[in-house]
Amino acid sequence: MFKRKEREAPRKLTEFFRLAEGRKIQDGAGAGSRSASSTAQTNNNPTPSSGESHINDNPLSSSPFCSPVKQKRRIGEGGGNEDEAEAAGNEMDESSTQAEQLDAFPTSGQPIIDTTMKEMLQTLRGALQSDMAMFMNNTKREISAISNRVEYVENKMEEFTLAHNELVDAHFEVEDEIRAMRLKMADVEDRARRNNVKFRGIPETVKPAEITTYLQKLMMTVLPSLSPADITIDRAHRLPKPSFLPEQLPRDVIARIHFYHIKDQLMRFARQHPSLPDPYAGIALYADLSQATLSARHNLVPITKILRNNKILYKWGFPAKLLVEMNNESHAITSIEKGLDLL
Known about the structure:
Blueprint lengths: L1 H43 L5 H8 L10 H11 L3 H13 L2 H7 L10 H79 L3 E5 L10 H12 L10 E6 L14 E5 L2 H13 L11 E4 L3 H9 L1 H9 L4 E4 L3 E6 L2 E5 L2 H7 L1
Helix pairs in contact: 1-6, 2-3, 3-4
């Protein structure tokens, strides 16, 4: 910016001289017209007034180097034509401050002394300093406005950051609560189904009204020590067939055993004997569990395979987890990573 101002200094000085030369030409033209008018008035009026004689006799009145301000003052003092004086005064009032400053400097027809050059340079320096001060003030105002805007944006960003952090913390808390609620719901649903047993493989020829009797006979065959009161079944019916089962396989039957300990004995027998005695050899028994528990147990299938291959006893807990005893210590496995670390 300063280099640009330094390059503009000689150009401004040149403009000063050009304006001064133009002022000289205008002053010369004005002096010629006034001289012609004065000659005409002299011929018409042989005895001019003292004021007119003063204007005509003054050699500086028509000088091109005399400033318009001085000419205006002399015209007023001489008591000449009032209209011309008023017109000249209006023209002088319309001139700029820069033109008035140039009137004090010599034109190209006069020699430039050191003092005059110094004054011209000081005037140029003052103009440059004024421009620089104006530019710096504008720049400071703009920087101040930008600084205020940046400070406002920073404050807003700080508020947004705090609000975002609060939302993230609340989000994590809600996720933990939702996870706990899902586990609780799955546990409640599994407890409501704990007396249910799924039978897969019962022929479709067994009518719905005959399902309860068919299941009671199966229980008496598997557990002959039971009494008729122990094999009470609250209700039993068929389920819609899942899409992953073969088409020829009959629909599953779900039954609610009235006594939980009887249901537990029945499931224990099914785990110990892969095949039931005739005529129920093709029937399999499964626990009735919620979908959330089934998904969690399916994720732990690789761990159960390792436990069976190593002949390590385990059982399922609620919510879905594996309860394993190793080296006289009980362990709960809730994920594959934890199971692999344990094994």
